[in-house]
Fold each of these.
Amino acid sequence: MFDYQAPDNLLNDRIILVTGAGAGIGRAAAKAFAAKGATVILAGRTVAKLEEVYDEIEEDGGPQPAIFPLNMEGASAHDYENLAATLEKEFGRLDGLLNNAGILGVRTPIESYDPSIWDQVIQVNLNAQFYLTQAMIPLLRQAEEASIVFTSSGVGRTGKAYWGAYAVSKFAIEGLTQVLADELENTSNIRVNAINPGATRTNMRANAYPAEDPNRLATVEAIMPAYLYLMGPDGRGTHGQSIDAQG
Ligand SMILES: NC(=O)c1ccc[n+]([C@@H]2O[C@H](COP(=O)([O-])OP(=O)(O)OC[C@H]3O[C@@H](n4cnc5c(N)ncnc54)[C@H](OP(=O)(O)O)[C@@H]3O)[C@@H](O)[C@H]2O)c1
């Protein structure tokens, strides 16, 4: 596991946006960031799940979070502009962006991959990540130091049979991380990195490997040190990297 012990006040006064905050890794990250002092903006498509996370953060005594309903499959540039305008008005800046939401699509050979599912996966896992990140850059520039974290995968580094659009979208995320990091190198307060969570006990993993025993997998909580490291000031100096949460 990534070896990092975060201090309790690591993210005090930071404003951090987490996509896919209602379930799985995004839910754990939102709660971990709040537990370290961050005001978390919970973005996702199922409001009831976001409300549960909101309540859990409040019960744990974390800073009051905010909810922004966002379906990244159908969202237009206008929706991302709306989000940026709301955040500008409410907070005036953004200190962190965790691009976490994603979908698996189907596991099937390229030869028989349904083009409509291909489009859906590329829309959510790649295009929407670009739209959102682009819209957030002006707000991230307002922070003293800011961190963008993209979510990669092992199949985004080495292609594997039947992973189709999911693998291709994650290769593209690795590329987007490198391109944006290079553009912002030495010219900005924003660092850009990706995390490969590794096999983690979530619904997505269970859908990909239905026969697997989930108890043998890392929990979402166990992989949080890497997320906290990249989001907080100890991650200064890490830029343009793709790190393994279970490395
Ligand atoms: N788990 C693993 O082993 C593993 C390994 C490598 C990489 N990853 C990556 O880690 C990230 C999180 O995955 P996970 O395992 O936590 O998956 P998950 O449990 O399926 O959670 C995915 C999250 O993304 C949200 N989401 C899906 N489609 C969306 C849309 N159209 N608009 C907005 N939000 C949407 C989901 O919202 P709803 O709950 O409302 O559906 C959910 O909150 C993904 O990028 C995944 O590719 C996971």
Amino acid sequence: MAEKENYLLTTKNVNLFYGKKQALFDINLSFPKNGITALIGPSGSGKTTYLRSLNRMHDLTPGVKVEGKFLFHNNDIYSDNFDLVDLRKRIGMVFQQPTPFPFSVYDNVAFGLRLGKKISKHQLDEDVEKALRQAGVWNEVKDRLGANALGLSGGQQQRVSVARVLATKPDILLLDEPTSALDPISSRVVEDSLLDLKKEYCLIIVTHNMQQAARISQTTAFFNDGRLIEVGKTREIFLNPKEEETQDYVSGKFG
Ligand SMILES: Nc1ncnc2c1ncn2[C@@H]1O[C@H](COP(=O)(O)OP(=O)(O)OP(=O)(O)O)[C@@H](O)[C@H]1O
Ligand SMILES: [Mg+2]
């Protein structure tokens, strides 16, 4: 099928258990090479759980069982021969709270690059600048690259966190409520930088903010009770959903 080849990441029949408690039920969802997919749904519906399964973050939590297929470039990321360090570079994660390390802005972005193969100072400078530009924060930090990243505003810290992930040249960015800890103005600035990235990257973003989902995503997936209720074009999901549950949620009846 031609359509299938356009997907960078395809998940099939995903079930996930925290001990005996099942948290995800038979999720089938695919992500195109470029663009933004929003994952929406009420608290506890499984959005974070699903997002974290996409780069094997649950590997670190004892008692979690993940089932299903996760095809990335047609390889299953859960197969034994998949290199985890490589996976986390190619599928990077940005968290809800900005998470800069307590070092300089420059070192925050250079961190992942220095873990890899040897790289010259000149190349490092170039890559750091490129990542900060892509994350839309270069102009604000270019004169304070040596300053501690913790001294930046929340919105700047979050864009530096995005730059840190971008520096390792991922294909996919996973973002779990990346603007929920920010004021509305900083949120919009972060949103704008995400919009710029969608041309080149596959972004998967969990958000509680419906306006945000509507503004930035092309595709929206609605989760409820660990199930994927509906997925489709963002416009359709918000204006003309097929399922009553989706309609109730997007119109603010619950969640
Ligand atoms: N480490 C864990 N151990 C046991 N249960 C968990 C764990 N993490 C999450 N859960 C449960 O799995 C379900 C889904 O949680 P998840 O965090 O994925 O929801 P969410 O949609 O991201 O919610 P929110 O919008 O509040 O962030 C919930 O019932 C939650 O209590
Ligand atoms: Mg969550």
